[in-house]
Amino acid sequence: MKRKFLVIIASLFFEIGKLDAQTISGKVVDSRTGETIIGATVYTADKTKGVVTNYEGEFSIDVAKLPVKLNVSFTGYSARSLIVYDDEESVSITLNEKRSFLNDVVVVGYGSQKRTQLTGAVTTLGKDIISNSPSPSFENILTGTIPGVNVTTNSQPGAASNIRIRGGNSVNASNDPLYVIDGVIYYKEGGSLDSGVKGVGVEGGISPLSLINPNDIESVEILKDVSATAIYGSRGANGVIIVTTKKGERDNAQISYDYSLTIANTSKKLDVLNAKQFAEFQKTYFYNKEGFSDEQIEALGEGTDWQDAVLRTAITNSHNINISGGDTKTRYSISLNNVNQEGIVRNTGYLRKGGRLNFERLVKPGLTAGVMANVSRGEQQGLSSSSAVTYNGSPFQGGITNSLVYALIMPPTVSVYASDGSYNFTNPYEYLYFKSGSTSANPVHDLESTTAKSISDDILGNMFLKYEITPDFVLKASLGFDVENYTQNLYAPENTALGMAVGGIGSIVKRRLVAQQQEYTADYSKQINNANFINALVGFTYQNTEKTNLMAWNYGFSNNSLGVYDLEAGNGINATKPISSISHSDLYSAIARVNYTLLDRYNATATVRADRSSKFANGHNWGVFPSLGLSWNVDKEPFLDAKEKWLDGLKIRASIGTVGNQEIGDNLSVQTYKKTSLSGTSVTTVSNAANEDLKWETTMSFNTGFDLSLFNGKWTFVGDWYYKKTNDLILTVPSDVALTGVSSYTANIGNVVNRGFEFMVGYNPIHKRKQNLELSAFVAYNHNEFTNIGEGREYLDADESYYRHIKGESVGTYFGLLFDGVVQSDEDVSALPTIGGSTLEPGDAKFVDVDDDGKITQNDRVELGHSLPDYTFGFNSSYTWRRLDASVVIQGTSGGSVYNMLRRRLELASDSYNVSVDLLNSWTATNASDVVAVSSVRPMTAYVDSRYIESTDYIRLKTLSVGYTFPLRFIKGSIRLSATASNLFTITGYSGYDPEVSGGVDKGNYPNSRSFTFGCKLSF
Where are the alpha helices (DSSP H) in 420-520? Predict the structure, then answer.
């Protein structure tokens, strides 16, 4: 009875206490944006009561009495305390964002990390920059936005660009970074295929990265130093680019449609002679070849502008649809895209159709399954081309490589069309090369009638299972695959420049690539008390790649109606029989990484990866690549934490380690054979000499840097200094034909060093709820140098006559003669060095006789510059005011060079072809110019000289964009209208179409365009 009485009394007091308790309700929001903050902690000052805000940012907390002091905190925001006096009204609590980029979470290899815990150099490209870019190409988005990343774009629609992270490490092996797309290690094969027809082919080729729709990208992380890339071992020597595509948000279904229209035209034209100038030129220098009278010349005027005839205003239409959403167990994102991009050169362009699916579901507690699939079809109509060698006796050896260049040298006195409106095939100046009987080639007709098509069908996918044994211990298995079917069709009818001499020519080349990737990882993370955090990852990966190739070609067609789809109709007696090949490669890898953080201040990352590649000789298959990274969060030290309010974050980093490179061809370590014809008899010859010592190319890297954030994120600074040394370079070296059967073979010789720095500064002077202004700028320097070229060697000649690998010089060093002016009338020609055994005459070009032997020979060649720029820099600005947004991107490079082969061709005087206007100022007896005399019969040297090695320094206004978002309240959505101008102007001294020349040699590269894009994005 007594016990029951006590229970009743206790219950009574408890109920009375409940009556005295007060319930406080409210919401926590961002002070700048007004958006709710999910997961913020609200607790009483005595810490006896605490709650977390829900998905609406709302909370409800019971307190014993009022008034009460509440503390509110959330990661990335400054904590706040306030006193609540009344429980009758909802409390609105605003938190100020603690703006330091060190609070960000970034994607790294096989996981993610807080930036405060990073020891490596990782740069993030956010979705805002990506989504506002008008480019249909993912690669172009990187241009001018990331320090240490140099992008040389190819202006041909759909074509690949050259991307280099902190310089080029290799010569024969790939210098391309590794791409990881939603966990799939992407095999970047791509590019143009050899048609098998004496070097004739299709220019550009489809970029393998064109399958990625930029509208699908959530973020891009660039891993630059060894601490960040070592987890990829042999795949990370050239840096890693991790692409994460968009995934649906839980409880937030969205539908968006994005349309854009782009209008583009050439940003520059080259100056060649008009009709009047051409006739005067012919009369003056080629003895009045066509018999022009002064009256006839005066009446000619401008004549035909062949550049205008082959260039056009191009239209691009782009459509993107995305549907995303999810619930507590499921997330999904589905997108479809269609891009139809015309090129500014006639009958060129790119068409992409594709779709992407991202889906993941919580199958049961702890077990998540997911799938990512990207399907894409790309079709590119490009330029038919020939290597810069003699083909059918034509002047391709002088630098004519495609119909665009052919148009530049067409006489302006010749019309495009005949009087009846048909194409004009009469050219009185053409008497040998592009002529058959009375029919001469017409470059406009060439472009319109020649098939130079690349077709790429790609499937990129990944399936995974992730099981959380505990919240700290996660197992993951994934299967990735990349299937690429690539075709290039070339058909040039009999009345085109390429097909005229042989009655039409056609070829089909097919390549199929299937790459399969398996990954199994175990990830353990644990916060041990308040002082220690540890994350450990171990795993095993396997990748198998199979490549098959098939090629067939023929010539001599009597009917052009079916083009490449009727090759058997050709009667070419010397056409190559169909050629097919297959190759395999395997890569087995074991990975391990440990991240450790002490007191939230001291971080260490230790990584090791062991790779076994089938591409190297037996006994040299394995490569082991370790790294160690350290960082110190100085701002977390007690002596700074409470005193220095201006300091948001300061981290100092350092890393050292080794990675490898196995991106070479298959079967280079073994002897292989091929069939060939000798005097009409089929014989077997050696195609590759064995090298039983062929092994990994390895790069040792050291990096030190800092990350600094000041004044609540208003100022940010990032700086890095690095040193990379690549050993055992995989090079093509000369071989004794009598012993090996081939003139060269692949071996490990020499090393290359890259060293440089990167510095980026960001400034955010306005950061308010309705207005924000962000500015950033960067500069990066890289010095590339051969420090060893093999024992006893000072140089190694490259395949091209204008390159040489020289100890102490950069990879891609141009090598040629030094131009020394023009011989003048009063010079003693007997004292000048001879060229080809001939004595120079007034008006001839002079060159420096380096070895002083009285003759100009190959021994007089010297270094003339290098293709890699020393400096890259960029400036980015973004501004928002209410619903208005604007952005600017400026980029540039300094210290690089290019061999302008096109200019050399246009300055070669001819009585058949047009030339540069610069020749109007050429040397004559009355014009003592330093330009080479106009004479096609004087002795010429085949070697490149310093006149045509030009600086590629430039500053470019890359993009200027403005947009406005209108709310659509009746569908709870919005519509954004935007306008973007690209490549508005370029400041450069380069004389060609554009200083960005992919490959370092301008043979008539596709011209850059100035474009204007108008977009409309509907979201609801």
Answer: 443-449
- HSE, side-chain direction, 13 A CA sphere, residue 338: 5
Q: What local confidence, expressed as pLDDT, does residue 17 receive?
A: 44
In degrees and rounded to multiples of 5, residue 299 shows phi and psi of: -85, -10
Q: Which residue type, as a one-letter code, is found at position 7?
A: V
Cα–Cα distance, 521 to 350 (Å, whole number): 40
The alpha-helical segments, DSSP class H, found in 177-300 are 226-229, 275-285, 294-300
Please give the single-letter amino acid code of residue 511.
Answer: R
Q: What's the pLDDT tens digit per position in 430-485?
A: 877 778 888 888 999 999 998 888 898 999 999 999 999 988 899 999 999 889 89
Q: Of 185, 244, 133, nearest to 481 (Cα)? A: 185
Which amino acid is residue 181, in one-letter code?
Answer: I
CA gap 616, 665 in Å, rounded? 10
For the chain, give the mean pLDDT. 82
Please tell me the distance from the alpha carbon of residue 504 to that of residue 491, in angstroms, as a whole number: 7
Q: How far apart are CA 619 and CA 694, in angstroms?
A: 9
Burial class (CB in 10 A: 0-12, 13-18, 19+), 546: middle
Q: Which residue has the higher pLDDT, 157 or 126?
A: 157
Would you call the peptide bond into 411 cis, given omega within 30 degrees of 0 as the criterion?
no
Radius of gyration, CA atoms only, the chain: 33
How many angstroms separate the CA atoms of 704 and 628, rounded? Answer: 12
Give the position of tokens 């940010």.
716
Instruction: Look at the block and give the residue holding tokens 């995305």.
Output: 322
Report how far residue 543's alpha carbon sits from residue 519's, in angstroms, rounded to the nearest whole number: 9
Question: Pairing between strand 771-788 and 871-881?
Answer: antiparallel
Measured on CA atoms in the order 554, 559, 560, 565, is the torsion positive or negative? negative
Amino acid at 823: V
Residue 959 to residue 1012: CA distance in whole angstroms: 10
Contact 427, 440 (CB under 8 A): yes
Nearest to 504 by CA among 365, 392, 398, 636: 392
Tokens of 819: 């131009």
- Beta bridge partners of residue 753, listed in sequence order: 725, 785
Reported confidence tier of residue 319, pLDDT bands at 50, 70, 90 = very high
DSSP 216: G
Q: Which amino acid is at 965?
A: T
The pTM is what?
0.84
The whole-number average pLDDT for the span 556-560 is 83
- Asked if omega into 67 is within 30° of 0 (cis), the reply is yes
Q: Which two tokens stand for residue 826?
A: 């009063």
Nearest 5°: the CA angle 378, 384, 385 is: 125
Higher pLDDT: 648 or 10? It is: 648
Please tell me whether residue 829 adopts helix, strand or coil conformation.
helix
Task: Tell me how far apart the terminal alpha carbons of the chain are, to the nearest angstrom.
Answer: 67
Q: Which of 689, 690, 665, 686 is nearest to 676 (CA)?
A: 686
Do 27 and 36 touch, CB atoms closer than 8 A? yes
Q: For residue 864, which of 783, 948, 925 has the smallest C-alpha distance?
A: 948
Sequence letter at residue 397: Q
Q: Give the start-end residues of each E strand in 343-406.
A: 349-364, 367-381, 384-386
Residue where the block lists tokens 């201040």? 601
**CA angle in degrees (0–180, nearest 5) for 390-394-400:** 85
Domains and CATH numbers, the chain: 2-96 (2.60.40.1120), 122-269+311-679+694-817+863-896+952-1019 (2.40.170.20)
Sheet strands (E) in 58-137:
58-63, 68-73, 80-84, 91-95, 105-108, 111-114, 122-125
Helix (H) or strand (E) holding 127: helix 127-131
Which tokens in the block code for residue 279?
A: 């006739």
Length of the chain: 1020
Bridge partners of 631, per DSSP, are 603, 653
Distance of CA 992 to the CA centre of its chain: 22
